[in-house]
Amino acid sequence: MAVSQVNIRLDSRKLEILEAGAFVDGRSVPEFVRAAIEDLADQLANDPAVQLAIQARDERNRRPASNIAGFPTKHRVRAADA
Questions:
Q1: Whether 49 contacts 55, CB under 8 Å
Q2: Quick one: how far is CA 15 from the chain centroid?
Q3: pLDDT at 15 over 90
Q4: What is the model's pTM?
């Protein structure tokens, strides 16, 4: 399974609260916050709107890329005009 990283900025007071909560729980702050985020993701996984959004994104990603021709950047003299 692929693993990704999420970086967030928090107000210093909120970070202090998370640090205290992690200390009381006997975990590091990353472990404490990771567990909370994973719980949130588990809750969202059951939300029908979230499921539809994932399906729509997956469908869009499965479509083949359309062929886009290069757009000429300089005016060229056509052979018939030369």
A1: no
A2: 23
A3: yes
A4: 0.65
Q: Give the residue among 53, 63, 56, 18 at the shortest CA–CA distance from 37.
A: 18
Residue type, 70: G
N residues, the chain: 82
From residue 48, how far is each of 16, 44, 53, 78 by CA, in Å? 35, 9, 9, 56
User: pLDDT-derived band of residue 64, with 50, 70 and 90 as boundaries?
Assistant: confident
Residues 14 and 25: their CA atoms lie apart, in Å, by: 16
| pLDDT at residue number 57 | 92
DSSP string, the chain: -----------HHHHHHHHHHHHHHTS-HHHHHHHHHHHHHHHHHT-HHHHHHHHHHHHHHHSPPPP-PPPPSS----TTT-
